Structures are given as C-alpha cells and as structure tokens.
Amino acid sequence: MRKYSCYQVDAFTNEKLAGNPAGVVLNAGDLTAEEMQKIAREFNNSETAFLVPECGKPYDVTIHYFTPTKEVPICGHATIAAHYAAAVENQLDTCRIFQKTGAGVLPVDIIHHNGDYRIVMTQGKIEFGPVLDGKNLEKLLAALHLSQSDLLKDYPVQIVSTGHSKVMIGIRDSALLNCLQPQLQALEELSGMIQCNGYYVFTIDEAGSSLIHGRMFAPAIGIAEDPVTGNANGPLGAYLVHYGKVDCSGSEFLFQARQGEAMHRPGTIGVRVSIENGEPACVQVTGGAVIAFHTELLL
Description:
The protein is of the alpha+beta class. It has two domains: 3-107 and 289-298, Diaminopimelate Epimerase, Chain A, domain 1 (Roll); 127-288, Diaminopimelate Epimerase, Chain A, domain 1, CATH 3.10.310.10. Helices cover 22% and strands 40% of the residues. It is built from six helices and 18 strands. It has helices spanning 33-43, 76-90, 134-144, 174-179, 184-194, 230-242, and strands spanning 3-11, 20-25, 48-53, 61-66, 71-72, 95-101, 104-113, 116-122, 127-131, 158-161, 166-170, 199-204, 212-218, 223-226, 252-259, 267-276, 279-287, 289-298. It has an 18-stranded mixed β-sheet that branches. A hairpin with a 2-residue loop joins β6 (95-101) and β7. The chain is globular. It starts with a strand and ends with a strand. 46% of the residues are buried.
C-alpha cells in the first residue's frame, strides 16, 4: 500500500472556495505518468501538481502538471498552490526553491510573513508568437461571439508565452467580458490549427485597483474556463510592455489582475515585468493561497 499526501489549494486568494483550485500531491516520486493522469482526473481541477523532491541535482524539486485530460509543461496557479502546500507542511521559512518543469528550471520564492505565505513564481522565456488575422481571426471572433469593433484598437490578437502559450484578446467592454459564452468546440478546433490551447480575453480598467480583468478558455486541454490564470496574466504583462501600452520608462512594470468573477471564484494576481531597453525581460507572478482540505490517498 502506497500513501500520498494530497491537498486541495485555492490559489490567488486568501479565501476558501474562491480563486483557482489546484490539486497537489507532495510525494509523487514513485507515481507513473498514467497514475498521475488518473489522480488529476479524480481531482478534476483545471490542473494538479505532482512534486518529486530531488537530491544531488541543480534543482530542488521536479513538478509535473496534469489537467484532467493531459500533461502540460507548466501552470501558474498550480505552482503557487504546490509551493504553498509544501511550505505549510514543512513549516518553511522565507527561501528560494528551484523547480524543474516542462518550461525549464525556474526559481520560486517562498515569503513567510505574519504566519502565512506568499509565493513568487518566475516564469519562463518570453516568446511572441503569430498575430492572428484573416480566417483564423474570423474563426476566433465567431467562436467568442465578438466583432472587430469589440476589440481594443491597436491591440493585436497574438499568441504570447512564458512557458505555456495563450492568445491575448483585448476587448473594450467589461460587461461584455462577463457575458461571454464561447463555442468551446470551435475554440478547440482552432487550437489545433494555431497550436495554442488557451484564449485569454481581457479588459483594461485604468481607474480601478486592478488594471486587468479577464477570462481564460482552454477546451483543447479539458478546461472550459479557468478561474485565475498565472500563465495568461504573466504573458499579458510582457505583451503590454512590448506594445508600449503602459509606462515602460523604468526598470519594471507592476500591476494587478482580477479574474474568476464570472465564475464566482474571484482571485487576484500580482504581476511584475522586468524591463530592459524598453522591452520585457522577465516576468514574475505573485499570489497567496489557502488550503481547502488535506487528505491521504492510498494506492
């Protein structure tokens, strides 16, 4: 009989049953990929993180990320959740952990303050992919029930990645954002054509406490809608700097993003973009978390 320490953690929130839930298995070293997939399906969250502690290597832990239907290279909220659960279980102090993921070896900072933790995830290489136009853009707008006039002017609809790519789609109306009812099958078919499985629709609120409000759809990997997405808001920060939509005169750009409101699971992400010569150089996302429950799985 094998025993596994399993957590359900709500990330990018300090309130239980809000934010983005992730499954976490802390001692996953002897699990097969097939077993991980089955456990992720059982959790049925958008992602479940499986931690494999490492010794004698240039990194501290390997993390595998599974949706209910497939493995993905990296996940923002599941990274926050995984290191939060590990910090609580091991009673860690402030420290830096190096994790090996499908997006490379990346640092994660665990900040211990007032008896709780905040997690800072450094994301992977910033990559700007194709701009969607022509038939692909038409298919996307039809799937989202949007028109060209709904889009933000001079905000290209573009694939951007910091380890797990998303399509950036800026729209003008926050009320429209919360009313979106996309054709998921059409989005899934388009993902196969453009080789990108996530669609991040966002609005800008320069007067509010959160600059960005967004929704993310990824039906091609079994996620109809993700509540709060680190690997959407991180690349969005790089996108905003790259296109000069924010003040790029300093060495960094900081903002908050609010997501999950349409799903009644609101959460907030802090994003930091390091700037070099007016271009994004590195992206970090920051968030709190809360443990919804802890249990043991016997196999």
